[in-house]
Structure prediction request, 332 residues.
Amino acid sequence: MDVLSDVLAAVRLTGAVFFDSTFREPWVAEAPRASAIAAAVMPASQYVFFFHTLIEGSCWVELTEDAAEPLRLEAGDIIAFPMDDAHALCSSIGMRAKPDLAVYLSPVDRQLPYVVNDGSGAGTCRFICGYLGCDIRPYNPFINSLPRILLGRGTAAQGWLAHLVRHAVSETGSLQPGGEIVLAKLAELLFVEVLREYANELPPEARGWLSGLRDPQIGHALRLIHGQPAESWTLEGLARAVGLSRSVFADRFAHYAGDTPMQYLARWRMQLAAKRLEDTTGSIAQAGAEVGYESEAAFNRAFKKFAGVPPGAWRRSHAPPTTNGAGTRSNW
Prediction:
């Protein structure tokens, strides 16, 4: 069981590329908190954050609501802001410009990305910018283990990925069919590559879910839970399966995952059940049975505890819009 792939699929990681920008010094591009524009740029995602891939040149990046140290970006670098921080990309430290929220509306008359070209030659900087979206309800175990700034330097792997992105941007600018979906998938691929690099470089003493994936015993327990979520797991059974005492296993699991093993199992079951509930072809009892609940009443209680609403209410609130014969939404 590839736990990271399982989680990224279950929380529906989705990418979108909005901007292909070239600026000539002096320049600054300031981005708001992604939550301020999430409904406009990725309305289907519960949580949205920015990413930028630097294609040519170099620049500075700074958080605009925090006194953190500026970071220098070079061609091939990829940077993301998973904790919803407003930030600025600029040619010189300290430059600021008020964000124009109107530019974040999706165009209806042309394909993405927006092309911004402010010149060429010496002192120019080109980057592509976009968003990554995912579900965070009922449960997303990895998002809170990410840093405020996730930075991937221009390694060999990321270099060829950046080349693919640049090629896809060129195709979209030429109005090639399918350009937007190519960009979206490449954005997801870029993020996963940077995420894996970050996880591989975490020190042995690091806490968090990503660090837990690398721990021999906790990683094994996570693979068991994700591989067989409907199994009747117990604390004793998991501890025995990974070769630890009950108390040591419970302490180590909480150290990494932030939850007890049984809490983690219950939360993950609810994430899987929530996705199943959005498929209206099955019953609520079937959704519960698929994640290990023989009793529909017990499933209802557990789901409401973790999701905040009963399964039926979740299903109704996540039902796709209905359409009338003319193709318009009948519930508008």
Observations:
- The longest strand covers residues 14-24.
- Residues 288 and 294 are 7 Å apart (CA to CA).
- The radius of gyration is 22 Å.
- Strands lie at 14-24, 28-31, 47-56, 58-63, 71-74, 78-80, 87-90, 114-117, 124-134, 150-152.
